[in-house]
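chain below, 207 aa
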Amino acid sequence: MFTIKKHLARAAVVLAVAAMAGCSSTPTYPPAPASTGKYSWNYLIGPGDSVQVFVWRNPDVSGTFPVRPDGKMTMNLVEDIQASGKTPTQLARDIEKALGKYIQEPIVTVIVAGGIGPFDQQIRVIGEAAKPQALNYREHMSLIDLMIAVGGLTDFAAGNKAYILRTVDGKQARLGVRLEDLLRGGDTSANVEMRPGDVLVVPESLF
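prediction:
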């Protein structure tokens, strides 16, 4: 009788653990929206970028200049112009305005030679990823692209409990993702499009 009760108790524990494990694979937050292919993005210059400035018919003013940690850059005839947070076209128009004091109707083209981008456009991965880190956003970057870059999940990751922190309409939202299904189950429907500034949080499994 004691042996039967003992086996029943063990069976109950196994069933409870299995039930909890099944629940742990269910995303906690509303799912991240699937990719629509309609998201448009413009690269913004950031600290650490290298900016090539070409001033038509003025090679002495042209050159390649770094963007300082404070987001500003200094070039020939122009000191401390704000560069971070602007598109190359916006920066070109600002340089034209600044050079207008010295050059009649300057025509400026700006090319980003080495792009890092501002911190608020980088994507961060924290928690149980193999290599948690901050990465530069790339156009149409997807969740699987991001996971390849960070080396996948650790053995302790609760992949289907992961979520993305994303600013939507000025408010921070938590959007669930199914990393376990995507990486270990090969479910491509779990792949979603990333956005600049996203933070992917991968929690640790409880067992």
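The two ends are 32 Å apart (CA to CA). The chain has two domains: 27-39+120-202, 50-114.
thats it, cya
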